[in-house]
Design a protein that fits this description.
Largest interface: A-B, 69 and 69 residues
Number of domains of chain A: 2
Radius of gyration of chain A: 21 Å
CATH class of the largest domain in chain A: Alpha Beta
Largest sheet of chain A: 8 strands, mixed
Order of helices and strands of chain A: EEEEEEEEEEHEHEHHHHHHHHEHEH
CATH superfamily of the largest domain in chain A: Alpha/Beta hydrolase fold, catalytic domain
Helix content of chain A: 25-40%
Distance between the termini of chain A: 30 Å
Oligomer: homodimer
CATH architecture of the largest domain in chain A: 3-Layer(aba) Sandwich
Chain lengths: ~400, ~400
């Protein structure tokens, strides 16, 4: 569930240089639900050069709020969300690899999603967008990979929701992936994860816009609502470790000019945030509601809820039976959303299924979001570079 | 942060019999903020008989959503929220002790709070209710105890927010408490705790009623809003352990008659909850919004946020310096909201301050709410009964 404001975290330098997001068009796909969805647009970027043997492609898989812009500097001067990892000489070395990054199906950053126009009604899909799965997202990425003329990916790599997609790639398309890096992920969303997503969506549903959809202002409210901000703030609490929260904020107050508490909820009882941690979350919430679409949030979190490699296949060893990719599973000891125990469950099942699996638990204090944290990049770089080089 | 629907948890039998909530009136108090608040009403119940020596009083301190009705059966046939612990022969034995339970200041169950009429405006306080602290709640309990003619309490006992109040009693009124039982609590709310409360209040603020306060229906919406339900659902996730969620719900679907997922958000995109855990939370949210006031929720969570014995006094050993009560600190190994480490911080500070302190970590899987869980009552009974008897 990567955040987009990488400046805060990652040690990015835009070394890859200027990049433009490109768009590929497809007729459509039949979703896991049985519904046909098309035509489809996929927003994507590439970095590096495809080898003549077409054997050096690495597919980057973003988390909940990410986009196709993973590296370099875009037309707006914005750094890619994983620029610290992708570029010449970096962990995912663009001098060696042809790196592909696309916005996921259901997203709001150029790929077909709830903001797209439904050709049937000539209006945006909104919440009538069909429900999708991680598998559907991966199938659409498959169309893009095929479109680029690539038969087999050297690697697929992603954290959080991106890690779930890396797993789907390895399980669903064993012939098309040579290796997969699964970071801070799980083989099935836990009931606690479902619960957090559910509450976030309910915060969106209790947003004013949904109560007064007929008013002129309704649509504006809908896209600027506080519900999405609340959902994002809930998410942010789960992405950070208790330790980071203590170190970064503790019980520090935002207003330094008054001694002690304000004993006030502020103007008209609309709180502005008295503690620094409140102010931080408020900032995360409001910047998110400016850059993300609430209906995309609903569709994507629902796809995450549906993610369960184990259930439909009986058990995880069976689920992993067809995997032929070399697997690298990474977890963070401070991640309480998808803790190391969830990674170990996957590792044990892969071992039982006699697959090639490596596992590293990184000692980083930044919680679930550690794969985006500046201080984590050197370790990630070392481990992922070594792993990519070891795959032939 | 006790839940009121004890039937689901505790093994209650209403053995204490019929009880009536009583009301005491006071001129008022000067709050920690410096604001004078009065007149005050305090809703309370008592169980058992006060000894001629006036030395057998035990004060029960409820959690966020609790009320004065802790034991027996009220006029509506409702069992007390801790009936399993309080009654003849129970852990807090009404054959031996005179048990007092009151609704906290700022509450919405009979004690003065945001629903009370502000005599200045002749309207309910709502969000203009002054901000209060745990210390203010305890001072108001002090008025009640004095009103009942009791100079020294045999014991004060509470879980979660009630545990914070037990600590305040021991620290602020050392001459008035012989012993204190602090269950699943902390000496200061962590930034993560502040963050969860903040997001809950923001869910309330994004509630429709606040957007259209002029409409006739506005007020009704306000008190029936989904924002409070969202806040409560966030709370519930933090009260349950991951383990309990797995055991109780797992990834089970609510609708058994369809095979697999529904791939639908339901009518008009207003989700009804596809997974059992969603349906459970929805039930908790809606029943809470029928029985609790959102402005009380705001005032009380803000008081919890303000709770910090350490900060204003420099360190915890200094904060505990004046304590004369025998202290019992209890934690649950599955509580991730106020984990055992927080209890141990208190225990170490009490030891350093050379106070009489006992500590038990209970091995119960029900998370923060374990003190209300049926299966936890036998252990709690044994430990608290022994402790109460040991105090003379």
């Amino acid at each position: 569930m990567a955040i987009g404001s990488t400046k805060e975290y990652a040690d990015s330098d835009g070394l890859y240089g200027r990049v433009n997001t490109q768009y590929a068009e497809f007729d459509g796909i039949t979703l896991e639900s049985g519904v046909f969805l098309g035509p489809l647009t996929v927003a994507y970027e590439t970095y590096g050069t495809l080898s003549p043997e077409l054997d050096n492609a690495v597919l980057i898989l973003h988390a909940l709020s990410g986009d196709a812009h993973a590296a370099g500097i875009d037309a707006n001067g914005r750094l890619g969300w994983w620029d610290a990892m992708i570029g010449p000489g970096k962990g995912i070395d663009t001098d060696k690899y042809f790196v592909i990054s696309s916005n996921c199906l259901g997203g709001c950053k150029g790929t077909t999603g709830p903001c797209s126009i439904n050709l049937g009604t000539e209006k945006p899909f909104g919440r009538s967008f069909p429900l999708i799965t991680m598998g559907d997202m991966v199938n659409v990425q498959g169309l893009l990979v095929q479109h680029l003329g690539i038969e087999k990916l050297h690697n697929v790599v992603g954290g959080s929701m991106g890690g779930m997609q890396a797993l789907e790639w390895a399980v669903r398309h064993p012939d098309q992936v040579r290796s997969a890096v699964v970071i801070a992920a799980t083989a099935r969303l836990s009931p606690q994860g479902i619960a957090f997503n559910w509450v976030g969506r309910n915060a969106i549903y209790s947003d004013p816009a949904r109560v007064c959809p007929d008013t002129e202002a309704g649509h504006v409210y809908q896209k600027m609502g506080r519900g999405l901000a609340v959902a994002r703030m809930i998410g942010h609490i789960t992405y950070l470790s208790e330790e980071t929260m203590e170190a970064k904020f503790g019980r520090k107050l935002r207003l330094k000019d008054i001694d002690g508490y304000s004993y006030s909820l502020g103007e008209n009882g609309m709180e502005g945030g008295e503690f620094e941690v409140e102010s931080y979350l408020q900032h995360q919430g409001s910047s998110f509601m400016r850059r993300f679409d609430e209906d995309s949030y609903i569709i994507i979190t629902k796809a995450i809820d549906y993610f369960d490699l184990e259930g439909p296949r009986g058990d995880l060893v069976t689920a992993f039976e067809n995997i032929s990719a070399k697997m690298l599973i990474l977890s963070f000891n401070s991640d309480w959303l998808y803790p190391t125990s969830m990674s170990l469950t996957m590792v044990r099942a892969l071992q039982a299924a006699k697959k090639h699996v490596s596992f590293v638990e990184l000692d980083l204090p930044y919680g679930h979001d550690s794969f985006l944290a500046n201080a984590g990049i050197p370790s990630l770089t070392r481990i992922i570079r070594g792993f990519l080089n070891s795959v032939r």
